[in-house]
Amino acid sequence: MSQYTQPPQFPQAPMPPAPARNGLGTAALILGIVGALSGLIPFLFWLAGILGLIGLILGLSAKGRVKRGEATNKGAAVAGVVLGLVSLALSVVGAVITYKAVGDAVDEINKATSGSSAAKKPAGSDKPLEKAKDGEGATGEALAAGDSAVYDDDLTVTVSEPEAWTPGEYAIGHTEGNKAYKVTVVIENAGKEKFDSALVTAEARAGKEGVQAEQIYDGKVGEPFTGTILPGKKVTAVWAFDTPADAGSLTVEVSPGFDYNAGIWDLKL
């Protein structure tokens, strides 16, 4: 019987360990950092939310790999999860701030474009005003001399009866052959807030044709309103206008500011 010689047995080398799979933890950390930084800028809330959510998911997956021994960067995975949550929180805060800012801006635009919708309808004649020659329609309704335009904030504007007046030699705005009339304008602040009178303006039209009546400046006559009117206080100014000799009426329009409807007085000469 033949003898077979077995080959010698050599010990096998141990298998090298599998490389650590640390990619998810690193990605989670990077996305968490970028997301958190984005969340510091309110209008980038959408970017912070997206990056935070992805970073949170990757961080949780990375922690699972660490538990199974497939990864070794536990710190990066935990940091990715924490920063992901921070990014999501900042995203919510940024969204609230952004939406509120946009809402406030829209409200301001609506207030500006709506003009003086807060102005009350003043008592007086319901007769509509005639249009000026340039085609611009006057707003509001005609008031009589001595009537007041009262607004929702309790600001009151009153225009007196016109008084015939002779301008001085150095008056500005008077044309020889025309007649001059002056009116007293009183602004009373019965509200609770201060009122800036610097924005008060006036213009006038004379006669049925609505001819522009130039404002006359002569010493104290024609001086504009200036300064702040405190609650409970009033200020007075005397304005004068130049009209054709045959004008039988004078339409005076006083605008307290951008947020108010102009008050309009139809005065008999």
From TrEMBL:
Residues 123-136 have a biased composition (Basic and acidic residues). It holds the Pfam family DUF4352. Residues 113-138 are annotated as: Disordered. Residues 149-262 form the DUF4352 domain. Residues 24-93 form the DUF4190 domain. The keyword rRNA-binding does not apply. Keywords: Membrane, Signal, Transmembrane, Transmembrane helix. InterPro entries: DUF4190, DUF4352, Immunoprotect_excell_Ig-like. It comes from the Bacteria. The chain crosses the membrane at residues 43-63, 75-99. Residues 113-122 have a biased composition (Low complexity). This is DUF4352 domain-containing protein. It comes from Streptomyces tirandamycinicus.
